[in-house]
């Protein structure tokens, strides 16, 4: 009985690598290679996004530079400063008082400005927001008496839009523009009969007899309706007084002028609601005599702002128009 003599090792005395060990070694090499490649790819993307962010910030800085820095070569001709008031006038819209007032201040403060155009395309909106803009226009006109401000109407300038325009030195419109609607509204819905038909019981508890004022699920109370009419009449008179402040000597003697009706730009010229027919380009070239127009309208360049400007705020505008407004 004895031991078998072992076979001599091959390949220079090294033991052969078991198949499983060879597979693991190659797997580790492959994983290491993929890891390094992913790291290089990540570094490239990081570099790309850093460059993109730098370009974005650079563009924003250029946009925010005072226009006099960008347009010093215009000399005595200067520029016509433009501020756009587009859409429903509301605190959370692109036509909010904060936005429009900021643009107007920047326009008046710029040393190259020879005149300011407030281009309006608005069906109206918040009385408060429109009032803020109107007041600021008068303040800026008093502070910068040598810089005229002209309102130029595009498609529509109604209700709060006209409340703003009335503060301008002169108002221009296209012959087909819609102008006017000097009045105040409050609207809503009533669901009293709907609840009865559906067999739904309304349970409303309040402290204060008018706390559930104009509740849409309760019948209208005559005294509350009378209170609303008094409120609307008061606000309507404020609107009328504001229009008269800016255009008393220009308005025609027409009993329907403050009835809430609106007219074409051509008819508005005869009624004294506008001073002349013309576009922003016409006003810059022929009236201000500074053909170069520079936009001072503040813009929101965030993703949310871009989505709003691309049409995502349609529902928001619809809701805003259903509120109390001019």
Describe, in plain words, how this protein is organized in 3D.
The protein is of the alpha/beta class and 326 residues long. The protein has a domain at 76-183 and 247-321: 2-enoyl-CoA Hydratase, Chain A, domain 1 (Alpha-Beta Complex), CATH 3.90.226. The protein has helices at residues 19-64, 67-70, 97-109, 127-143, 160-165, 192-198, 222-247, 265-271, 280-288, 303-312, 314-321, and strands spanning 79-86, 113-122, 149-158, 170-173, 178-180, 262-264, 276-277, 293-295. Strands 1, 2, 3, 4, 5, 6, 7 and 8 form an 8-stranded mixed β-sheet that branches. α3 packs parallel to α4 (127-143). Residues 309-324 have low confidence and may be disordered.
Quick summary:
The chain is an alpha/beta fold. It is built from eleven helices and eight strands. Strands 1, 2, 3, 4, 5, 6, 7 and 8 form an eight-stranded mixed β-sheet that branches.
Gyration radius (Cα, Å) is 34 Å
- N→C terminal distance: 116 Å
CATH superfamily of the domain at 76-183 and 247-321: 2-enoyl-CoA Hydratase, Chain A, domain 1
Strand content: 5-15%
Q: Roughly what is the average pLDDT, rounded to an integer?
A: 84
Structural class: alpha/beta
Q: What's the main sheet like? A: 8 strands, mixed
Shape: flat
Spans of at least 5 consecutive residues with low confidence:
309-324
CATH architecture of the domain at 76-183 and 247-321: Alpha-Beta Complex
Give the helices and strands as they follow along the chain. HHEHEHEHEEHHEHEHEHH
CATH topology category name of the domain at 76-183 and 247-321: 2-enoyl-CoA Hydratase, Chain A, domain 1
CATH class of the domain at 76-183 and 247-321: Alpha Beta
Give helix % range.
Answer: 40-55%
Number of helices: 11
Number of strands: 8
